[in-house]
Amino acid sequence: MLKKVCAVFLVLCCPALSSAGMLVVVAESSPLAQMDRHEVRQLYMDNASRFEGHTVTVLDMPEGSQQRERFYEGATGKSASQLKSYWARMIFTGQGMPPRQVKNARDMVQQVKQNPGAVGYVQESDLQEGLRVLLRLP
């Protein structure tokens, strides 16, 4: 009983302990080995098509999803509204297009596993066999 009370207390009082971190992932067959936070930021904010000489497809969660908001705050320091404003400006000026959106976490995992050139992100709880972690975000 005491263990249950302590667990509930921790979950309610320390939400950071109950939320899983975000992981930048690729397929196990991907030639990419690792990335740092700065490289992830560049990849997602520029929607780059090449990284370390390899063609990449950058995948994104749907707009408004909690995973997307947590990922961008951790990787870029930008909020959802700042991100929306950034991409509106980039599209309007013809300087870029945002990354391709997937339907949900399951779709993200499936598309990354099937495409060695895909780069995506998932919560730690969604990590599966067939994915390789390039970076852990807080």
Describe the structure.
- The chain has a single domain, classed as Periplasmic binding protein-like II (D-Maltodextrin-Binding Protein, domain 2), CATH 3.40.190.10.
- It has helices at 2-13, 15-18, 37-46, 66-75, 80-92, 105-114, and strands at residues 22-27, 50-51, 54-55, 57-60, 100-101, 118-123, 131-137.
- The protein is of the alpha/beta class.
- The strands form 2 sheets. Strands 5-4-6-1-7 form a 5-stranded mixed β-sheet, sandwiched between helices. Strands 2-3 form a two-stranded antiparallel ribbon.
- The two termini are 31 Å apart.
Order of helices and strands: HHEHEEEHHEHEE
The pLDDT mean sits at 88
Class computed from helices, strands and strand pairing: alpha/beta
By CATH, the topology is: D-Maltodextrin-Binding Protein, domain 2
Summary of the model, kept short:
This protein is an alpha/beta fold and 138 residues long.
Topology:
Blueprint: H1 2-13, H2 15-18, E1 22-27, H3 37-46, E2 50-51, E3 54-55, E4 57-60, H4 66-75, H5 80-92, E5 100-101, H6 105-114, E6 118-123, E7 131-137
Parallel strand pairs: 4-5, 4-6
Antiparallel strand pairs: 1-6, 1-7, 2-3
Characteristic terms for this protein:
5-stranded mixed β-sheet; 138 residues; D-Maltodextrin-Binding Protein, domain 2; alpha/beta; single chain
